[in-house]
Design brief:
The complex is a heterodimer. Chain A is α+β, with helices and mostly antiparallel strands. Chain A is built from three helices and five strands. Chain A is about 40% helix and about 25% strand. In chain A, strands 2-1-5-4-3 form a five-stranded antiparallel sheet, with helices on both faces. In chain A, a hairpin with a 5-residue loop joins strand 1 and strand 2. The longest helix of chain A is centred in the middle third of the chain and has 21 residues. Chain B is an alpha+beta fold. Chain B is about 45% helix and about 25% strand. Chain B is built from four helices and six strands; from the N terminus they run βαββαβββαα. The chains are: A alpha+beta, B alpha+beta. At the A-B interface, helix 2 of A face helix 3 of B.
Amino acid sequence: MTARPFASILDSLTRQRWVTAALVVSERDGIVVESNLQIGQSGDRVAALAASLYRKARLSAQAAGMGAVSFMQLEAPGGRLCLVGGGELVLVVVAEPAVNVGLVRVELLRAVGELLAIGGEVEL
Amino acid sequence: MQMTVVEAWIEGPLKRFVVDAGAELALLLHPSGQVLAQHGFARAVDVMSACALAAGIHASSGELGKLLDGKPFRGLHHVGRTRQIFLAEAQSPRGAFIFLTVFGPESSLGLVRLYFEELVKGLADAAPDEVAATGPALAEHFERDLNRNLAALFGRA
């Protein structure tokens, strides 16, 4: 087990054009497990708020009988937040408005399997 | 659940914390164990017990941090079956306070830590410029001051 088990997932996400940060976050605790951030970015803040948002979306979808949340996107004038969940972990991408959301979505959904596999090995 | 404070300037920042972090209980106290503000507690005896325990935990964990790391621990977090506790020191222009909060599954440690930082900034901004004429908490006056503060918090002043 390496010191950065999610490095390959995060690197493949931050290589996407206009993606400024990628984080693996604990959904229950809202804290960063691992991250690729730029200097000056507050990963702790993003992690806490993104985990809370994802959790509420997951519970809302469950209550509405819609099943599990497969992909979540928050769009704002300053950028986008894209999230997918895998077990107890949430994969979060922060991007500029010009990002190709389709590509990010494909990359995130591809990463979920790997997230579940590694998340099962890592003690959280 | 009602929030009550001994000094009015504490109410705004503490209320914002409780709402934003989704905390069930919150307590702000002097390191001696004197209560300054509470949210969510129904009985004075519960506040008194929580303050005594929080002050003791803070003092002993501070010494433990100094032994292990050369400086006190910044905050403590405990996970129970259904609720979690966060305890940390909040520095303000009026001195160091101890902050204790209890939260359930609607909140998270990340949110609590995030809004705790904002609480500390809020207390620093809201603290009055003039320093109240209070001395250190002396053992001989401790019980008198504690009973006075509890009476103020629970409407029996």
